[in-house]
Amino acid sequence: MIQPNQKQIQIAIKGKWYTVPALEVCGKDIVVSDGWLRIARVEAEEWLETELEDPLACIELLKQQKYGPLHADVLSFRQKLPDVQPKYKYPMEWDSVAAIPLKSFSEWWEGLPQETRKNVRRAEKRGVVVKIKNVDDDLIRGLHELNNDSPMRQGKAFTHYGKSLEQVRKDQEAFLDRSDYICAYHEQELIGVVKLIYRKDIASILTFLPKGSHHDKRPANAIMAKAVELCAERKISHLTFGLFNYGNKQHTPLREFKIRNGFQEVLVPHYYVPLTVKGTLTSRLKLHRGLLGILPHHVITVLVDTRAKINGFRMSRCSSMSERPNRNRQMERSNPPAGSKPLSLE
Length: 346
What we know:
By secondary structure, the protein is an alpha+beta fold. Helices cover 32% and strands 28% of the residues. It has a domain at 103-236: Aminopeptidase, CATH 3.40.630.30. The strands form 2 sheets. The protein has a 12-stranded mixed beta sheet with strand order 1-2-3-4-5-14-6-13-12-11-10-7, sandwiched between helices. It has a two-stranded antiparallel ribbon with strand order 8-9.
């Protein structure tokens, strides 16, 4: 039986939607992850306008969940920029947020490397036109094509590849009342998009999707420049784009792109409150950080490179199979058997 403060909500995990139980606390939904260490967190925390206002009430409510899907070992929540001074005495770590502290567009522009400014100009010279769009059928079709531009991104399987138009439409339903879609077009073709969410005094990039096959036209730089321009016009204090460092994983192409476009590391308090004996023990051992927060950088690099090579080999093998004559392929036995699901590293 669902209690008065319990509900069922839909959340997206690796591009797929699931219905899960949640606790409603002060207008926010608290969900609990599966696994041997059960972590409670604020659903969509990084896109909300306010942070968790009453952590104590949330802690007391979670401690009442002795059994069932809402039983948790640790509560995770963090403060919202621009408030970076710790407000609570709970166990805390620092989140490495990628952010642009904004005063004006011109100040941001002058602080960019020369090559980044050239790339923005190259986009315009090569026919890229940037527009602000609302969600309609044309944009959904464009996003569908963007998703299917490549099954691989950053060396791993792209979770939105192969989705239907209706699935793409569902993915875009959240936060439409306070979002802008910044779209880069080339000859009426959508070649890049940013979904920018306004969170009162800050803005955050939810979707950043340039079309790899049009990389030479620099759509990524064009839409990023427009995002900063819009934020400056709205007197936004910070534009955020995920994390600067993901645990001990550093020196990635995305991180370098962020640096070249004016993002810097801003440390934000992130609290991990133990709720059980297991939560206390694992917090002391820092096991809540996951592998990216435990393994050293060089080991992570080896694992990421290995995954990229394996995925690249799988993609090239699939491409060669599809290009070979049917008479050759029909002589072979499929392995795994046709119709079975392929292995995934995700």
